[in-house]
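Action item from last week, closing it out:
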Amino acid sequence: MDYRPRLALEAIGLDSAVSSRRHAWRRRRWEMEESGRLQSVVGPRSRLTIFLKRHLFRLFHLGSPPIRLQRLHDAWSARAKEIDFVHHRIFDPGLPKAFDGYRIIHLSDPHFDALPGIEERISERLAGTPADAFVVTGDFADRHGAPPGDVIEPLSRVLSSIRPTDGVFATLGNHDSWGHAEVLQSLGMTVLVNESFVIRRGADSLVFTGTDDPSYFFTEAAPAALRAAPDGFKVALVHSADMADVAAESGFSLYLAGHTHGGQICLPSGRPLYIDLKRFVEYGQGIWFHDDMVGLTNVGAGASLLPYRFFSTGEVVLLTLRRGPRGTDRVPTPGRDQ
């Protein structure tokens, strides 16, 4: 399939103004991917780093290793598929009454091609969980340059395990290509690329604003989308925590991110050896606060580059929004949170 930019965007089903913006975004994103001139929120990304990451993936996904190494690989990759189910309550005094008790399931960084079969474990975790919205903050794929359609089968299985009342919303990560937007739309997901989606209940509204990835594909359109978000209880869906300050300044109450995998390779204490954030490294995992905004950096469901996790466990997260003094707590989930 030819994934070069097309002149027509009717298949995405957007109005003319949004179609024009999406067309401009697709062309710019394609140019960045093809040229390798990638941009973080603080400046250009190192081409050497990108080269090494892409070849590390190939090194660990070529052929079959010797039998002893194969057994070790099988054990480690099986351990990487063990996923926690985490439930947090998010309290905010400004939450509209109509959205008190609103349930958001947050998935990030499944990297379906890096850890085959991870979709089965994600589906098991999600099965039977009631939710109002299901959000995914990017990195559906792992291998740069892989056909976007490769995510259809595993993602379809995940989507079949949950029926959120208000829909499924997604943003792209640094491992996803511009072509993933159309693929995700074809599966019924609402892909937010520097755009907002408003959910109304009577006079009250909840706003999801999603941006393109700010860690590798940053443009000024991303912070502009946060600043232009309509009024309501605002939830930012961004692949990384790099734009926490912009969101907080723009009146967002909740910021959902991923990208870091919580380090993925950690010391026995759980301390990550490396967190891939250019800003706000302290927001590399879990719940955090920036001014009056609550943030959550999901440690991701899958694994990236290496099909392993050491002293780090993936997760899917259920968030329940409640009216009350600003804060959070973690709700025990017997039999699911392991």
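Closing note: Residues 1-14 have pLDDT under 50 and may be disordered.
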